[in-house]
Amino acid sequence: MTTAVTIPKSGGSGERSAVAARARQVTKSYGTTEDTRVVALDAVDVDIARSGFTAIMGPSGSGKSTLMHCLAGLDSVTSGQIWVGDTEITKLKDKKLTQLRRDQIGFIFQAFNLLPTLNALENITLPMDIAGRKPDREWLDRVIETVGLAGRLKHRPNQLSGGQQQRVAVARALAARPEIIFGDEPTGNLDSRAGAEVLGFLRRSVDELGQTIVIVTHDPVAASYADRVIYLADGRIVDDMANPTADSVLERMKSFDARGRVS
Amino acid sequence: MTVFKTSMRNFVAHKGRMVLSAVAVLLSVAFVCGTLVFTDTMTATFDKLFASTASDVSVSAKKVDDAQETGKPETVPASLLAKLQQTAGVQQVETQVVSDKITVVNSKNENVGSKTGAPTIAINWDERDSKKSVELTSGHAPRGPTESLIDADTAAKKDLKIGDSLRVIATPGDFSTRIVGIATFKTTNPGAALIYLDTPTAQSKLLGTTDAYTNFGLTAKSGVSDAQLKKDVTAAVGTDYKIQTAAEANAEAKDDIGSFLNPMKYVMLGFAFISVIVGIFLIINTFSMLVAQRTREIGLMRAIGSSRKQINRSVLFEALMLGVLGSVLGIGGGIGLAILLMKLMGKLGMHLDTSELTIKATTPVIGLAIGVIVTVVAAMLPARRAGKISPMAAMRDAGTPADGKAGKVRATIGVLVALAGGAALVAAGKADKASQGSSFLGFGVLLTLIGFVIVGPLLAGVLVRALSTVSLRFFGPVGRLAERNALRNPRRTGATASALMIGLALVAGLSVVGTSMVASATDQLDKSVGADFILQTDNQQPLSPSLAKAIHSAGHLEHVTDYTGTNAKLTTPDGKVSTKQLTAASPTYARDLRVEAVQGKLSDAYGDNSMSVNEGFATDHGIKIGSELTVAFVGGETAKLKVAAITSDDTTFDKGAMYTNIATAKRFLPADKFPPNQIMFAKAVDGQAKEAAASLKEAVKDYPQLTVRDQTDYKDLIKSQVNQLLYMIYGLLGLAIVVAILGVVNTLALSVVERTREIGLMRAIGMSRRQLRRMVRLESVVIALFGALVGLGLGMGWGISAQRLMATVGFGVLEIPWGTIIIVFFGSALVGLVAALVPAFRAGRMNVLNAIASD
């Protein structure tokens, strides 16, 4: 199975589509000669549902991070096409890509999410500042309220705990109301309690604010917060699971592991 | 051993980051070595020249310190010739006539001599003289009163050919001559213009008598040593003459050259010193940043058992390698610099042969020692800091290094030192005596500099914020990020800016002093100079009698003032004898230069057998109005002159001068001993200034060495003389600023590397390359502006203190060159932009994915 196209694109013009991002036959390979060629993504088709929470899983080297980077316009593809909203991004130049990231995409990384010289609030509004836009005050307050940072806005990152830092990162991603938020192991550096907190905020932002979120993770618990889990192995999508639980995810991973060992 | 291995690997791995520090070491060492090689080569070249041209023994007139400056060379009587020829041990006697008190002009009345201060020398052409520095290369030797040779370099420069006619302006009178041959230098041409005449012509036209020579050159018979010959000659002619062996003459000439070269040498070494100091900041910064970036790695080394000492040593070892590399390249660079300087001298007319490049064994040793010591000493602080890194650092998140905060102790020490320096500067400004004040000034400059360097990080916190408020805030969030970046490590910002600060402080200080000097002189000129025209030669030669006569013949003039100095021994009422130069001038001089008389009337000093003295001299020797001084004119008679006026010492021009009427002086000094005018003044008939100027210029058109200047021209002259000095100093300080720019580039480049992750993050969340580059540029600009602000402020403080000190010697007007200061301030913003070019470009090119990939 190399495709995870499950949602039909709605046809009507001017209508908001149900798909936030699409990838068609996306291939990413490194190396020039046949011998050194490594295929990170192998003709992947995927649709990311709007207002949904998607988790991408897979063993190390499966291409899950590469897929996310390509979807987010951080990395270029060797072939294939990617749409974010209605924009085809694979042919865009750096300038347009930067604008796209600024205006339509939010990021949460595993660590080093915040600029040490800026306080929490400044970090949250940074993407809008860079774009020269005024943040929507009401929305901003709601986001800050949601992630529970109201008392810590003037703190510098080094005065915040790891969990708080990640919450600031979530708030930053949410504040600009992007098309999609991408998270690269957003809870990878946190203990289980802080991780649960952050994941809870992500879940709520999907449910209450209608945000589209895609995270890469190898933690079954993190994946269980998602609406849907996509499994990658050797650059291909090998499974697609709806409404996962931690147990069902773990089961599925075990079976892949076993399969991997026999093959 | 492993420690050294890791050091070595680190050095190689980070060689890119070391490049700029190496350049700083290179520049410092190159400057030191270049100076040494250049001066050694000059000295060697001149030694050779002197050795090849000195006679075994020479006999010349004894130098008399207080001899009248008659515009003619000192001579020895021709009658000595026979005596010398008969002296035992003498093989041959050459008679020499040499004068450098001449001006030579071509048929278009253009001066053919050097305009850079090298002399024009007329010499007799003696066929037998084997020690000549030139040889005849075309034409024939001069014969008779109208023939001459000139040197090939001058001929080439001024486009002179055999058959051209020249006019020689000498004190005994002008004369015309025709070029009949060209002589070429056998060794280095020191830059002089030479003209050769036959011996009788040289005697009569240069000395005014055929009965004398300037000196005799003696060749010893074989087997007779120079010392023996000197003894024999001394026995034969007595001790009234200066009798020197070749070795003694060489030593004397060498001393002369030394006193000419030494100031140059010390100035250049001074600038080498500045670039060394600036380089130290750069090296400290580089190593601090390398250590900071390697914190985790060092923590790991500590965790697995490296001792503090080993860590410390490994950093120092890296510094050692950098020092050696930079020094070796610097020594090479220094030799290149010396060759460049020699080529430059060639442009100024002194042809130095690069094949005679002299590199003493001590030169590379000194260069290497300076480079290595400076680098290692500079790296000591960062090395200590590296040693203090705890093993825990390996476990911690590396990320960006913790923000460095300036400590309280440091602040206190810095402020105290700066205050002490400030107090010394104030003391210097208030000092009555220049000598005492200048040591205060020196201390003040040094202490304030050190103090400001120490408090630099603190100042950075305050000033960068202030500067950002007025400049960076216009750039929105990018400006704010740049400001925060500049502020995040005040120590680093402080050290980076310090390098620029030193250079600019010197520039500001010197320009305040220079401008104030010009302003003071101009002010004095306005206040005290009444003459409309100031008539002076450009080559420091006195005005020959023929020239003076020409000036007197000009029309539309109310008066013309003669002015010269006569040496005399003064016996004062307290019984003491002092040798002084008495200014002998026309009475109209009292109106040309209105020196204030504190007692009596200045015009009375020009009365019959009268004179004036200055206040200081009067106080020291108990002189009052009406005191009678015994004045023994050197080479003339003794007169009793009555003091009719006492002049103020508070003046820039003619400070300490004593005046008497030129007619009085002439009565006691024979005409052949009377010095020609040094300078002349003239005043136009009211309302006829234009006509007078035209008439004067017409009258002196045959004398290109003389420039007619009105007061405006004279002010311009003073200004251009001071500016020339300033430009030279600015040029050399440029080097310090280049090193400072390297420092800014270095800091930014390393910061960009250090902030790889942050840059990646900013790019990921939508910062464009342009915004990123602008951010780096703005950070650079604000650091540069900070350095400029502190440096210029400090420099102005130095300048004001120095000016107050100079007020005690008559430069009473303070003028701050705001134009220059403002231009330099904004220029430093440009410096910041230039310094940020490469780092900004690199930041923009950084791969977003590499930057954010988690390890």
TrEMBL record, chain A:
Pfam families: ABC_tran. Keywords: ATP-binding, Nucleotide-binding, Transport. The keyword Amino-acid biosynthesis does not apply. One of its GO terms (molecular function) is ATP binding. Residues 21-262 form the ABC transporter domain. It comes from the Bacteria. This is ABC transporter ATP-binding protein. The lineage of its organism: Bacteria, Bacillati, Actinomycetota, Actinomycetes, Kitasatosporales.
